[in-house]
Amino acid sequence: MESASLATGVTGTRISAAPEVVTIKRVRLESVDIVRGAIMIIMALDHTRDFLGNSGLNPTNPATTTIPLFFTRWITHFCAPVFFLLTGTGAYLSLRRKSKPVLSRFLFTRGLWLIFLEVVVVRCLGWQFNFDYHLLVLMVLWALGWAMITLSALVYLPAPLVTAFGIVMIAGHNLLDSVRWSNPLWSILHTPNVIFANPQHTVFVGYPLIPWLGVTAAGYGLGQIFDWTPERRKAFLLRLGIVMTAAFIVLRGINIYGDASRWSTQKSPAFTVLSFLNTTKYPPSLLYLLMTLGPAMLFLWAVDGRTPRFLQPALIVGKVPMFYYLLHIPLIHLLSLIVCYARYGHVYWMFESPNLRQFPVTPPPGWGLSLPLIYLAWALVVVMLYPLCRWFSGLKQRRGDLWLSYF
């Protein structure tokens, strides 16, 4: 049974023989599931804020934000990098039970499936609740799909070479920041922009492929450490997390390379810290990835070999990340419909295509809940999804149907 990040999970096989029967039990690496599940839960906070918050307020702009709002957005920065990293990790671990040709075919078809889900299912039934295609924004599943398609070719190379490809792409892509090409291919690869527009339709690339492809390739290399002894693996994760986090602090402090947006002194020391942490996600800069993946390695280290009781819900969600992802956006959108109707007596604007300045929806005047209410709505969404995730996790554990590996 396969899944990584949003698409590839980590399973192994344990066979116990008896005179009459052979029983097969699927075993997963719980540390990977816990980390993936935790970021999935956090991701729902960002999307709850998208729909129920004030979409006209930039939460990461130190000049206009508040400290609680900034960190509400900042904590969700960890989600996408870990998605892509663990996609590669899960792909490598799949080699325990798949040949490279079989894995390559699976990654290729899964990548196409993710792109379809982005363009059709998530777009129409999640973000926008319409089928008019006045606006199509190519987001995380689009990029994750292409990352898996790319990895379907890279798996034929030695793992160290794939790792080097990923690291070079992550560390070096900011050298391209000064390139200003106004063509669709460059927008797809590096700079978010409109790649198609006419009076009726607009296509916008929100997740350029560089360096997300590199993060996935680096994650593939990371999968090698799960072949090591637990002691060696934990020591490596601890060192890697510390080095990456320290590298972020040092390079960000130098303020020369690694991010197109420089930090600057603000109106108070606290807001200067916000400027320091306000790295670029679109496309993800070197510093953005060091800032997020460094602590993620420390999280993997902390939960390697143990599952704290309070993280049990994250463990369940992490086993069915695609299922969770496909449900949480329409659920949040539906919740926003209820709130909107209760407040205004109408919900028509929830079914209109948004403009690019107010994505994902164009709200009426005065729309937006307070931050505590957004957190309350987020908790409600997670609590509602948990029983469904637990049921689907059990279904995947009991059955090995091919279609289940695509959800």
Short description:
The chain is 57% helix and 7% strand.
Find the structural class using helix and strand composition: mainly alpha
Give the radius of gyration: 21 Å
Number of domains: 1
Largest sheet: 3 strands, mixed
Biggest sheet strand order reads 3-5-4
Q: Strand-residue fraction?
A: 5-15%
Approximately how much helix is present in the residues? 55-70%
Number of strands: 5
Task: Please trace the helix and strand order, writing H or E for each element.
Answer: EEHHHHEHHHEEHHHHHHH
The N- and C-terminal alpha carbons lie at a distance of 10 Å
Mean pLDDT: 89
Q: Tell me the overall shape.
A: globular
Extract low-pLDDT stretches: 1-26
Number of helices: 14
Description:
The protein is mainly alpha-helical. The protein has one domain. It has helices spanning 30-52, 67-74, 79-94, 100-127, 140-154, 159-172, 184-189, 212-222, 230-254, 269-277, 286-303, 312-319, 321-344, 371-398; strands spanning 11-17, 22-28, 135-138, 193-197, 202-205. Strands 3-5-4 form a 3-stranded mixed sheet. Helix 9 (230-254) packs antiparallel against helix 11 (286-303). The model is unreliable at 1-26 (pLDDT under 50).
